[in-house]
Amino acid sequence: MEVAVAQMPRFSRVEEGVAWLLGRVPRVDLLVLPEYWLGARALEEGEFGRVVSGLVEVAGVVGGVVVGGGLAVRRGGAVVNVCPVVGRDGLLTWGEKIFPSAATGERGWVSPGRRLALFRAGGFVVGCLVCVDLLYPELVRRLASAGAEVLVNPASISADRRGLWRAVGLVRAFENSVYVAAALGTGYRYADGRPAAGGSYVASPNGGLVDFGEEAGVYTARISRSELDYARSRRRYLEDVARGAPEVDLNTHGL
């Protein structure tokens, strides 16, 4: 499968971001956008509808599935960070950010999500975890146990956390025998002044990693069925976990 990550700057208007993508995207099976590519703000339903319509146009050029990043959307009085999954015929499904970030203050205006999504692209089963949800191994394992073979991670990460994000992606990929494709934003600053400087990557289930640097652009990598099969035949992590958790002795005597 050919996967592409869009390492994007932030845009103030949907049309600007869509135009940027249309001028760069190749034909691939799966395209992943970063979190908050329209800024860290809440979108009303109408604007979110325009996002989906624009991504339908992008999907037509790509020829595959587009993961529209993580976007805060106001729904029913609450704001939830939504990861739309879009094909040429419209919205296919969506996931939600389960744990908004406490460190950036996001938790003060974005409500916890409740929905993890699985979908198919290029013959693979794909799951989406938005930004810091990748730091929760329980969420990754839940998707992997449900059949995910590729995890996409739309994220917004400050430059000082790039090394950490690569390390997390490598570990999650290896311990769950999945690919992790992280799309990170670039060329803007957090409210506290820290820069975001890319660092998008694709991590393989056997310890390999392709890092796409700092520059804005759309970058591609090939995901291999044979590498996934090799990982799962050599390391039986998911089979072992499926057997059930061991008992824990809760007797704290002597502790």
From TrEMBL:
Q: Which InterPro entries match?
A: Aliph_Amidase/BUP (IPR050345), C-N_Hydrolase (IPR003010), C-N_Hydrolase_sf (IPR036526)
Q: List the Gene Ontology MF annotations in alphabetical order.
A: acyltransferase activity; hydrolase activity, acting on carbon-nitrogen (but not peptide) bonds, in linear amides
Looking up SUPFAM superfamilies in the UniProt record yields:
Carbon-nitrogen hydrolase
**UniProt entry tagged with the keyword Transferase:** yes
CDD domains in alphabetical order: nitrilase
Q: Name one Pfam family in it.
A: CN_hydrolase
| Domain of life the protein comes from | Archaea
The name under which this protein is listed is Nitrilase/cyanide hydratase and apolipoprotein N-acyltransferase
